Amino acid sequence: MEDTALQIRKIGNSVGVILPKELLARLNLKEGDKFYPVEHPDGSLRLSPFNPKHARTMEIARQVMHEYRDTFAALAK
């Protein structure tokens, strides 16, 4: 896929990028799915079905649940 260039095209009143079916298959995406652009410090852009903000939120939630596990266990009784 490194040699594949994507082009921004007019789609109705908007612009968009048409993704080749091979790329959609590699990302395990289909029409209607969401994917996220992830910018890197070197200026590159990564498209991923993985949401880094959601992952960070879940990591914080795991930390809180671990820290207060005794409290949650008592509340669950």
TrEMBL record:
<dbReference type="Pfam" id="PF04014">
    <property type="entry name" value="MazE_antitoxin"/>
</dbReference>
<dbReference type="InterPro" id="IPR007159">
    <property type="entry name" value="SpoVT-AbrB_dom"/>
</dbReference>
<feature type="domain" description="SpoVT-AbrB">
    <location>
        <begin position="6"/>
        <end position="52"/>
    </location>
</feature>
<dbReference type="InterPro" id="IPR013432">
    <property type="entry name" value="Doc_partner"/>
</dbReference>
<dbReference type="GO" id="GO:0003677">
    <property type="term" value="F:DNA binding"/>
</dbReference>
<dbReference type="InterPro" id="IPR037914">
    <property type="entry name" value="SpoVT-AbrB_sf"/>
</dbReference>
<keyword id="KW-0238">DNA-binding</keyword>
<protein>
    <submittedName>
        <fullName>AbrB family transcriptional regulator</fullName>
    </submittedName>
</protein>
